[in-house]
Amino acid sequence: MEFAVLRVPFFLEPHYDESKPFIESNRDRLIKKWGGKKGWEQQKNRHDLKGRGEAAGIPHFNLDRLASNSMASHRLIQHVGKRYGLDISEALYDRLNVYYFVEGHALNDKPRLASVAAESISQSLAKNNNNTSQALMSEKEILEFLNGNEGRLEIENALRALNQLGVHGIPKFIVEGSTVIDGAAGPDTFVRIFREIEQRGKVEGTAIFKDILGVDEETLSRGSYSRESLLMEDAS
Questions:
Q1: Residue 175 gets which letter from DSSP?
Q2: What pLDDT does residue 231 have?
Q3: Cα torsion for 102, 118, 93, 193, to the nearest 10°?
Q4: 90, 225 Cβ separation under 8 angstroms
Q5: Alpha-carbon distance 75 to 172, whole Å?
Q6: Which of 1, 11, 22, 206 might form a disulfide with 68, Cβ 3.0–4.6 angstroms?
């Protein structure tokens, strides 16, 4: 089985100033959000983010990571997926999760982001034997992209669509364009749904955000993951 993951942008703090590399630490953001340290501690215990992170292979969340506007990073993820394929944008997405949640860097620190993204894209293309005809994006080219506006309209349209669908929190997964799975669901839920599709022998529906984000069917059909790629990840 092969499948495609199409990342749909979502802003936790849409009011953050785009012109600033970062606004505050995530610790300060969450303490304010939950009405003080007591409320924050209750929320942490309720959601068990540390335990869920450890189960996903993330041994440490940097609570003092630098929170910032994420428009530029969302634009970059979408651009890389269209240019090189969703497997390469997924690898970049995974790298940026480490960059932010573990290393604590701001997603709007554009020079640092460009450097990390250039390295990730280069390594992923080499590892995946990607046969794209597109030239490798240099660090300078990525920085120019981040400082521009290409892809902004698609992001804004996706945010409006999410609001219309009543999606006000993340993570959420929409499988086959119709089945909505809350982020709190465990692996068994996804395995069950994928097994049902496997037994059916075909996918019913498509990614409902592909047209909004400007992703074509050919890019979707190449997918993000295959059985072989997942086995390689497990082995590493």
A1: E
A2: 47
A3: -140
A4: yes
A5: 19
A6: 22
Listed in sequence order, the DSSP H helices in the chain are 26-33, 37-47, 49-55, 71-84, 86-97, 110-127, 139-146, 152-165, 187-200, 210-213, 217-222, 227-235
Instruction: Tell me the pLDDT of the chain averaged across its residues.
Output: 89
Contacts for 113 with CB less than 8 Å, ≥ 6 apart: 72, 73, 76, 96, 99, 105, 107, 142, 146
- pLDDT > 90? residue 89: yes
CA nearest 74: which of 164, 138, 170? 170
The pair of structure tokens assigned to 74 is 């969302």
**In sequence order, which residues have a C-beta less than 8 Å from that of residue 99 and are 6 or more positions away?**
105, 107, 113, 116
Query: Which token pair is 137?
Result: 């994006």
Amino acid letter for position 176: E
Query: What is the distance between the alpha carbons of residues 38 and 3, in angstroms, rounded to a whole number?
Result: 42
- Cα-Cα end-to-end distance for the chain: 20
**% residues pLDDT > 70 (the chain):** 92
C-alpha atoms less than 13 angstroms from C-alpha of 123 in its C-beta half-sphere = 11
Q: How many CB atoms lie within 10 A of CB 51?
A: 9
Query: Above 90 in pLDDT, residue 205?
Result: no
Kindly give the interhelix angle for 110-127 and 86-97, rounded to the nearest 10 degrees.
Answer: 130
Angstrom distances, CA of residue 36 to CA of 31, 44, 63, 152: 5, 13, 15, 34
Q: Which residues contact 12 (CB under 8 A, 6 or more apart)?
A: 70, 170
**DSSP class of residue 162?**
H
Question: What was the pLDDT predicted at 178?
Answer: 86
